[in-house]
Amino acid sequence: MMNREEARQKAEALVAQMTVEEACEQLSYQAPAIERLGVPAYNWWNEALHGVARAGAATMYPQAIGLGATFDPALIEQLGDISATEGRAKYNAASAHGDRDIYKGLTFWSPNINIFRDPRWGRGQETFGEDPTLTAEMGKAYVRGLQGSGEHLKSAACAKHFAVHSGPEKLRHEFNATASPKDMAETYLPAFEALVKEAKVESVMGAYNRTNGDPCCANPPLMEKLREWGFAGHFVSDCWAIRDFHTGHHVTENEVQSAALALNTGCDLNCGCTYDNKLVAAVQMGLVAPDTVRRAAVHLFTTRYMLGIMEGGSEFDSIPYTKVECEEHLEKAREAGYKSCVLLKNNGMLPLNADKIKTIGVIGPNADSRRALMGNYHGTASRYITVQEGIQDAFQGRARVLCSVGSHLYLDDSENLSQHKDDRLAEALAVAENSDAVVLVVGMDETMEGEEGDTGNPYGSDDKSSLLLPDPQRRLMDAVLRVGKPTVIILMAGSAIDLAGAGEKADAVVMAWYPGAQGGRVIADLLLGRQSFSGKLPVTFYYNEQLAEMPEFTDYAMTNRTYRYFRGKPLYPFGYGLTYGDVSVTAAAARKTDTGAEVTVTLRNAGAMDTDDVVQIYCQNEGSANAPVHPRLVAFKRVHVPAGGSQQLSLPIAARSLLVVDASGTLVAEGKPVFYVGMGQPDERTRELTGHASLRVEL
Question: CATH class for domain 583-698?
Fold first, then answer.
């Protein structure tokens, strides 16, 4: 890869030729051209959360939370590379036509590595889940894929939102997230540290909120952490977050002061317009030194040189537009879908026996919904396959497929002129009554959970107040299940949902997340057993009433939150997911190494079907007063085990994973490290649901 020092020297030489006013202009996300210096215009804002987003056609993978459910860093790195490849193809094509607009650049503001600490957070779907280790491993993999290992950066990744950011959405422009030193070091910062130190992420984005009193885009303690970790890239504000300094947080009085505070503290790039409007004035008033402006510009141009878009080109200039949505990429997106879907319950209904089904009913507001495939921050696929369409294709010429929307996502009526609520319920019941098996597809979409203000509707595309589905869907589920036909519920959502009584009555329950443009084909293949389920929950599924046992949404303490600290019995535990096989750990042993420890695991698949599964190793420091309530994930590995087959593998455990974090935020050796090895957590609920217990292994 291009030597950063060489790129920095080129950037310094270029910036030295700029006037202060020209350098100020380059600190805006929509940087103008400087014709006299041969600098082309560049728009820094692009997105690639689960495929290149907001820029037209692109391969669409499952939403990030679904990618977290794969527990497969190798796959995530491949998906990152696909995003970079398609981003390059689109950049090459757009630049050739003189188009340097928003969403056309090579600086992707992904991944989102915030911790999904509370199930109500609408943007939690953008994350890899609630666990710091899982988030770090998946985040590093996506960054490696996006940035590549060539002479130049293939694209530039961004770790966001730094830091301590996970709702409430409505308060984010004024909210102060207070986190203890222990929670900072144990929960909120490890993934960022890993992406900076190990993946060499090129940029970091600050969050909207304040953290422990200071705005995240001008937060001295957080900026100092980046310096401690050796961060060498550039820092970018969240969009219009600097404006919040004076309009929401009231730490400054006006735009000039806000621009000065952000730049002086280390925010190089402004997504927004505060730098555009007032940075020159801040320099003229003596609030910002010209050298500070030039320092930020050097950081930004270093990235542009490392991308190979300033001079001489790069090895990626020949990537053709035909790589966008090519079959190879679509196949990899389907693989991600297969590995992301989580089988939560199965009383034997699945896989479906297509030879015995003459009529199958497909019911529900998400059954034929394209929007339910997408999640937020998505691109535009050239073809979508809904669940209804996937099942129709799978049963073509073999069985009749009857369909009904059943209900609206959240309104009582599907048609405005209906005289009574639940106007599609009779149709749904007729479908169920005439079917041998029913696929009931419910859930949410990006209009119901997501970023504050992202879409306009009664729910505000915002946080959730409840873990239950809206009343119309609950009435639909109850009514269809009363018909008594074998029924599988497909849940399409980006966060934990409590199906209440419906989940208990259904024969099978599948968490499909937002599975990507071809999600309908993926789900049909899984239902028919053409692929085995193998996804694992990256978040805890709670009972709705357990929300009352948690701290307030605005409380960032980890007390009674996530699997590490939750003291109740969850609906479905973190790390849980069934397969069509029956994989368990039959033996395990641990030994110390120079770099920490190594755990050797023997697995056996006692089931009748080949399947992937995920080995999970949890550690508890027995006798430590500072250890989390429950053992914490320290290593995992996706494996493929043939029916009746066995496999042995070894997993390394990093030395820091054997330590605990004390009240001051310091890693300390305390207590006796003990490992628990299994295909899920070593908790009572996982044993109850899977019939298998983790093995306890002393080091």
Answer: mainly beta
Distance CA 121, CA 207 (A): 15
Q: Which stretches of 397-523 are assigned E, i.e. beta strand?
A: 400-404, 437-443, 487-492, 508-511
| DSSP string across 621-637 | EET-SSS-SS-EEEEEE
Contacts of 352 (CB under 8 A, 6+ apart): 360, 437, 527, 528, 529
C-alpha closest to that of 368 among 404, 336, 342, 421: 404
C-alpha to C-alpha distance for 393 and 385, rounded to whole angstroms: 10
Distance from C-alpha of 38 to C-alpha of 487, rounded to nearest angstrom: 64
CA 238, CA 541: separation in Å to the nearest integer?
30
Domain boundaries, given as residue ranges, for the chain: 4-12+40-163+171-323, 341-539, 583-698
Q: In 3-state terms, what secondary structure has residue 646?
A: strand
CA 433 to chain centre: 39
Q: State pLDDT tens for residues 121-171.
A: 999 999 999 999 999 999 999 999 999 999 999 999 999 999 999 999 999
Q: Are 653 and 689 in contact (CB under 8 A)?
A: no
Q: What is the pLDDT averaged over residues 413-440?
A: 95
- Pairing outcome for strands 359-363 and 437-443: parallel
- Residues carrying an active site annotation: 238
CB atoms within 10 A of CB 542: 21
Please report the pLDDT score of residue 76 as a whole number: 98
Q: In this predicted model, what pLDDT tens digit does every residue of 4-45 receive, in sequence order?
A: 999 999 999 999 999 999 999 999 999 999 999 999 999 999
Give the closest residue to 405 by CA, choosing from 374, 362, 438: 362
CA distances from 419 to 415, 416, 424 (A): 9, 9, 12
The confidence score (pLDDT) of residue 452 equals: 83
Class of the CATH domain delimited by 341-539:
alpha beta
φ/ψ (deg, to 5) at 115: -90, 130
User: What's the pTM?
Assistant: 0.97
- Cα gap 605→641, rounded to integer Å: 6
CB atoms < 10 A from the CB of 368, how many?
A: 18
SS3 210: strand
Q: Please give the structure tokens belonging to residue 200.
A: 């060499």
Exposure string of 435-473, with b = 16+ CB inside 10 Å and e = fewer, is bbbbbbbbbbbbbbbbbbebbeeebbbbbbeebbbbebb
Backbone phi, psi, residue 616, to 5° = -130, 130
| Distance in angstroms (rounded) separating the CA atoms of residues 24 and 10 | 18
Orientation angle between helical segments 220-229 and 190-197, nearest 10 degrees: 40
Locus of tokens 């490992």 = 675
H or E element in which residue 661 lies: strand 660-661
627's CB contacts (< 8 A; 6+ apart) are: 620, 621, 660, 670, 671
What superfamily would CATH give domain 4-12+40-163+171-323? Glycoside hydrolase, family 3, N-terminal domain (3.20.20.300)
